[in-house]
Automatic annotation (TrEMBL):
Record flagged with keyword Plastid: no
Protein name in UniProt: Tryptophanyl-tRNA synthetase
Top-level taxon of origin: Eukaryota
UniProt keyword Secreted present: no
InterPro entries tied to this protein: aa-tRNA-synth_Ic, Trp-tRNA_synthetase
Keyword field: Aminoacyl-tRNA synthetase, ATP-binding, Ligase, Nucleotide-binding, Protein biosynthesis
Family affiliation: Belongs to the class-I aminoacyl-tRNA synthetase family.
Annotated PANTHER family: TRYPTOPHAN--TRNA LIGASE, MITOCHONDRIAL
Length: 148
């Protein structure tokens, strides 16, 4: 799995559908050894899946390896896919909820913009003061004479 690869099948996005997640995990690159164990040097594909599984379940690599020792890599991929789908479900539900409320999103963007403007204005005033600059600055509302 690689977020920098242009191929959409090389990664899992937060908003991917469950079927897409399962398909991408099933097609993830592993090797021809069916046993599931962690060895990033010799088995980077399987080890990557174990690392992802560890992250989404908050289990250690050792715990996962013990739990799945009877599975082959094909079976294990389905376990990983299910864990990822479960992990992403509440995030996807929240994203869906917020995307349905366009006005809320616009309000959040406006508040963020206003706050960023306040902070940047204070910072620029401080810079001007420290540099001893005096000049007129055009703002959105009107022209102000800055006298620092």
């Amino acid at each position: 799995m690689s977020k920098s690869d242009p191929d959409p099948k090389s990664r899992i996005c937060l908003t991917d559908k469950a079927d897409d997640i399962v398909r991408n995990i099933k097609k993830s690159v592993t090797d021809f050894t069916s046993e599931v164990y962690y060895n990033p040097t010799e088995r980077p594909g399987v080890s990557n899946l174990i690392s992802i599984h560890s992250f989404v379940t908050n289990k250690s690599v050792d715990e996962i390896c013990k739990e799945v020792e009877s599975l082959n890599t094909g079976q294990y991929k389905l376990v990983v896919a299910e864990a990822i789908v479960s992990y992403l479900k509440p995030i996807q539900d929240k994203v869906s909820y917020y995307l349905k409320d366009e006005q809320y999103l616009l309000d959040v963007l406006k508040q963020g913009s206003d706050r960023a403007s306040e902070i940047s204005q204070r910072t620029m005033n401080e810079v001007r003061h420290k540099l001893g600059l005096r000049f007129k600055v055009k703002t959105r509302q009107k022209i102000k004479n800055i006298n620092v």
